[in-house]
Amino acid sequence: xxxxxxKIAVDxxxxxxxxxxxxxxxxxxxxxxxxxMNGIGMGLAVTFVLIFSNILISLLRKVIPNQVRIPAxxxxxxxxxxxxxxLLDYAMPDLYDSxxxxxxxxxxxxxxxxxxxxxxxxxxxxxxxxxxxxxxLGFTVALTLMxxxxxxxxxxxxxxxxxxxxxxxxxxxxxxxxxxYAIFIAMxxxxxxxxxxxxxxxxxxxxxxxxxxxxVVFDNGGNx
Length: 224
Hints:
- By secondary structure, this protein is an all-alpha fold.
- The chain has one domain.
- It is 73% helix and 2% strand.
- The chain contains 8 helices and 2 strands; from the N terminus they run H-H-H-H-H-H-H-E-E-H.
- The protein has helices spanning 5-15, 26-31, 36-59, 69-91, 93-99, 110-120, 125-155, 174-223; strands at residues 157-158, 161-162.
- Helix 3 (36-59) packs across helix 4 (69-91) and helix 6 (110-120) packs antiparallel against helix 7.
- It is flat and about 75 Å long.
- The mean pLDDT is 89.
């Protein structure tokens, strides 16, 4: 069966967006989105782990016994999380400190384990890598948007650059995180719902056009 890479991309970014659609990985989403840079850092770390854990799990999917697949997946994920932690600690210590406890907790991030179980363990390497990439990018974009929104309103800055002195401290608080998350989920649902409705209307329009064309052909044939 031919792999639909366009569908994989759309699912990861939009249709099955892990943050706004499936509401997965809420702990780092709420805790680390006080700044846009934190969102990018966590998102790219998760993307790295998603891609390489998916690749390795796909390669080993016919070797790993079904009875121990979950422990095996967790071990593979933990290996790549350790690599990410070492790289960030060496190259970007400030970001490493900002992500704090949530960086090692990537091991139990339900987004990664869900993609390993539902996709990588059933598909080829290229498809699994693409699934990890686009799911990770969907997560990264979501965290970055929320981080930018909260940083601008909460501290009057973006990526650490001061924009103005006006600020609403509420958006830097835990309550502000929940409120922002609710706003973004609502906006995502409204926009995606409108797009789906538009596609349905377009499809129904084409079906009606075909019916009318067939009816005209049938009538002309009957008259003849």
